[in-house]
Specification:
The protein is about 45% helix and about 10% strand. The protein is an alpha/beta fold.
Length: about 240
């Protein structure tokens, strides 16, 4: 598995010339309950990129993973310490610049693997990818696991919108970085039953207004590493299929 951060520019040039797929993990730095670190979205995106690269290479297609973008649009968690919210008007041009940089140096297929689920973040990522693809002719893909038929495969909590730091993300973190899951804090967390998309449509402007005063939703206490591994396989499959 090749990471751009660990190779020379000449090696990167050879990969681009050979038709390698460039994978760009996208996440955020934001609150994920009292039991998970601020880096959840970044760690998940990197893990999905690793598994996506493995699938692509097993199918005969080279891939290279570029350093993750660790900041984005996180308005809903902005009231919690450690969250770094970058407005869309700054995030969009920055992401577009990163994607253009990859394309400019020969990568004709780029996968923007976004695992920060805030709607405004996904909108910015899609817009940046579309702008770069239209202006360069490159293939810039944003695998969107929120959309059908993918969403239902990721569980009822994911579909119903309670997936922020709940069963879904906690399971993924147990598989990706179990040492960063605070088990003592996790055991004390009650389920927070909130349909987050519905709460947002009803006017909620942040996690507190949507019914998540501790920056988590769903049932994190039911998470398992086994479920996390299963979810990672599904997410990698979605991304690999989109980039095939």
């Amino acid at each position: 598995m090749t990471r751009a951060a660990h190779i020379s520019w000449e090696a990167a040039a050879r990969l681009a010339e050979g038709g390698a797929v460039a994978l760009l993990p996208l996440g955020s730095t934001e609150a994920h309950g009292p039991h998970l670190p601020l880096s959840v979205d970044v760690l998940i995106a990197e893990a999905v990129a690793e598994r996506t690269a493995a699938r692509l290479e097993a199918a005969g297609k080279k891939a290279v993973i570029f350093p993750a973008v660790s900041y984005g649009v996180t308005a809903f968690a902005d009231g919690f310490a450690g969250t770094v919210h970058v407005p869309a008007e700054a995030t969009g041009p920055f992401l577009e610049g990163v994607l253009r940089g990859l394309v400019r140096h020969g990568f004709r297929t780029v996968g923007a693997l976004n695992h920060h689920l805030e709607p405004a973040q996904f909108a910015v990522v899609h817009a940046a990818a579309r702008a770069v693809a239209e202006s360069t002719g490159a293939r810039v893909v944003v695998p969107d696991h929120r959309k059908k038929p993918h969403g239902p495969r990721l569980g009822e909590e994911f579909v119903s919108g309670g997936s922020h730091a709940g069963w879904y993300e906690t399971s993924l973190m147990m598989a990706v970085a179990p040492h960063l899951v605070d088990r003592a804090a996790l055991q004390a967390l009650p389920e927070v039953r909130v349909d987050l998309p519905a709460a947002i449509k009803a006017g909620g402007r942040n996690f507190e207004e949507c019914g998540g005063p501790r920056a988590y939703f769903g049932a994190p206490g039911t998470a398992t590493a086994e479920e996390g591994e299963r979810l990672l396989c599904i997410l990698a499959e979605i991304s690999a299929e989109a980039l095939s």
